[in-house]
Specification:
heterodimer; A: FAD/NAD(P)-binding domain; Enolase-like, domain 1; 3 domains; globular; B: Ubiquitin-like (UB roll); 3 helices; 5 strands
Chain lengths: ~400, ~100
């Protein structure tokens, strides 16, 4: 029998790729190799409804376990890939087994940045959120009255802060930059979420650097900030970005530049090895692009399936993201990279507004808070390459459909 | 457990018993119903679980909520009177026998 296709990483990108390979009529051997004990599951709810206890673990799985059997997809879990030989077409696992492959997809995902042990990063009760195991470790620590310190005011940290505040913890978020969400959103979006968190009793401290986490008996007790103040804390959640898991590719001699470098066909510098999802970086709209989102894991994973089987048009993502905090749903369409101005459109409901990002006169992205219509119509306009008139957009009384027509 | 039937674009039918409380997007994905994707996991951000409720069931499934109604603006297949996002239809005993038509995308 011909050598199989192996998908390395048992996350969303591999699950999507596997499903698509079968849907496209690939009936050959197919294996997913993953480090975690669980079959592929959805990560976005981990920092939201899963850690809060609203969503049971069974609901996280992308496919029921029986599906893999029916589709004849071999799941090799709790198996870490340690070496990849692109010439011999061999993948080596931590247990020493060597798996031959015809083609291979690297969907190895990413790892959250952690704080170095020298500044208390390895103390007990200091968490990052990436895996089911992380969320399972955090959930029992979210007790009413406990003091949570969130390090990093990005989406994951703010989502965790919202869950904790609603559970009755005392929450402080510290952010090194001038404003929360600085890396990913414009000031009006930061202002909106700062006010939202403050209205729920969360303390937001921006332009605030951390010197070290402090503890006794290996337990966290607080944090010393750059200005010398000490904040007491029982738990810390570190949300300071992720690093693509490109080590296996680098060690195999594949091109790696801030992620595993792929072309529009998801192909690495080796023609039989592909990459997709958080770990892959590709040229898009004139710049190297790595998208950290479930949208990209799904779409690029499926795209890779087509490329594994032959030639497909170049990958052209239509990025979208979302975040849930308290009773606000933020929906983002497009990518705001390189924006030079924004337009704020007030919404029709309480806590509802949208921010429209422009590069010159061209609309490139939208942040919509509790305004699904702005998100939906904006997404459609982006995909059609339409750019609305700014004055009309800023007028909350204007009809959005006509403005975007 | 209510029995739900998905009728695909070419006429093929897939039926399954769905646990009460589960939404019909996750049920479709679990039962390998093509063209129901559910990219966002049911959080009303993608409109990739679009279905047409069989008119006979319109009353029992009800009307889309405000946010769902907005999201129905970006379905890939055309929006019709019976359009719903199936992640917003929750399986109940009342829906035993429900028929959903799945547009090809």
């Amino acid at each position: 029998m011909a050598a199989p296709i192996i998908l390395v990483g048992a996350g969303q990108a591999s699950a999507s790729c596997a499903g698509k390979l079968r849907a496209l009529g690939y009936y050959g051997q197919l294996m997913i190799v993953g480090e975690e004990p669980a079959a592929p599951y959805q990560r976005p709810p981990l920092s939201k409804k899963y850690v809060s206890g609203e969503l049971a673990v069974e609901r996280l799985f992308i496919r029921p376990l029986s599906w893999y059997g029916e589709q004849q997809i071999e799941l090799r879990l709790e198996s870490r890939a340690v070496a990849l030989d692109p010439i011999a077409h061999l993948l080596t696992l931590a247990d020493g087994s060597q798996l031959p492959f015809a083609k291979l997809l690297l969907a190895t995902g990413s790892t959250p940045r952690s704080l170095p042990p020298e500044i208390g990063g390895s103390l007990g009760n200091v968490f990052t959120i990436r895996n089911l195991a992380d969320a399972d470790a955090i959930a029992p620590a979210l007790k009413p009255g406990a003091k949570l310190l969130v390090i990093g005011g990005g989406y994951i940290g703010l989502e965790a802060a919202a869950v904790a505040a609603q559970k009755g913890l005392t929450v402080t978020v510290i952010e090194m930059a001038e404003r929360i969400l600085q890396r990913v959103a414009a000031a009006p979006t930061s202002d909106f979420f700062r006010a939202l968190h403050q209205s729920h009793g969360v303390t937001i401290r921006e332009s605030t650097g951390l010197t070290e986490l402090i503890g006794s008996d290996n337990r966290l007790t607080g944090a010393r900030l750059k200005d010398g103040t000490i904040i007491p804390a029982d738990i810390a959640i570190v949300g300071i970005g992720i690093i693509p898991n490109d080590g296996l590719a680098r060690d195999a001699g594949l091109a790696v530049e801030g992620g595993i470098l792929v072309d529009g066909q998801c192909r690495t510098s080796n023609p039989d090895i592909f990459a997709a999802g958080d770990c892959a970086i590709f040229a898009w709209h004139g710049a190297r692009t790595r998208l950290e989102s479930v949208q990209n894991a799904i779409d690029q994973g499926e795209h890779a399936a087509a490329c594994l089987l032959g030639v497909a048009p170049d990958y052209d993502p239509k990025p979208w993201f979302w975040s849930d905090q308290y009773d606000v749903k933020l929906q983002i369409a497009g990518l705001n990279r390189g924006y030079d101005s924004t337009v704020l459109r007030p919404g029709k409901r309480p806590l509802s507004q949208s921010i429209w990002y422009f590069q010159g006169d061209r609309l490139i992205a939208i942040d919509a808070m509790n305004d699904a219509l702005a998100y939906a119509l904006g997404k459609k306009a982006l995909e059609a390459g339409k750019s609305p008139d700014r004055a009309a957009l800023a007028d909350s009384q204007s009809d959005l459909k006509s403005v975007l027509a | 457990m209510p029995k739900i039937t998905w009728v695909l674009d070419g006429g093929r039918e897939i039926s399954a018993n769905v646990a009460v409380g589960h939404n019909l997007m996750e049920a479709a994905v679990a039962n390998n119903v093509p063209d129901v994707i559910g990219e966002c996991g049911g959080c009303l951000s993608c409109a990739t679980c679009h279905v047409y409720v069989d008119p006979a069931w319109a009353e029992k499934t009800g009307k889309p909520g405000e946010m769902e109604n907005d999201m129905l603006e970006i379905t890939t297949a055309e929006r019709r009177e019976m359009s719903r996002l199936s992640c917003q239809i929750i399986a109940t005993e009342e829906l035993d026998g429900l028929i959903l038509h799945v547009p090809h995308i």
